[in-house]
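Morning. Coffee machine broken again, so started the prediction first thing and wrote up yesterday's gels while waiting. Chain of 187 residues, entered below exactly as on the submission form.
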Amino acid sequence: AERGGLDVQLAPILDVDLDPTRQRLMLNAGTRNGVRRGQAVIDAGGLVGQVIDATPTTAVVLLLTDPDHAVPVAVARTGVRLIVYGTGRSDVLELRNVPLSSDVQVGDVLITSGLGGRFPAGFPVGTIASLRPDDSRAFLVGDVDAAAQLDRGRDVLLLRERPGAPGSAPGPAAASGDAASVEGATP
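Came back before lunch.
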């Protein structure tokens, strides 16, 4: 977090919804605590998901295992970029459309790639548990064991960029072109 210019905030889990069609957490922290939509959420093991809704006192996290969730990842060993999809199961993620020619193996660790800007690069997502040809035999499909303990734990960490950190987005005033707020800002 320090290297990436990130702050972390501990948030207790209020409720867990691990229905196969809906994988969510409710947190006991909201906009009054600085929580905002789109924040990445991790635990001690790795990526948990992202905040999709926040009220003044609570926030809802879409787990990376939700069937509607996808995360850009990289193979830590080789740097090959792939996408991991939620399956609706709290213990398994899925790799799809892995080119046969890519250097991807069972046991490879997947980390966030940073592509898309939603999740900071370098956080563990999971480990490839199996690879098999898809129905067309043109690509591989893989099962991935999630790094995070999605069905356990009492707390998560919310990530946010530190103001003024390298790579952090400008604040709303700077984005609107307010000259007074831009002066004195570090490039």
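The chain has a mean pLDDT of 84. Going to sketch it on the whiteboard this afternoon.
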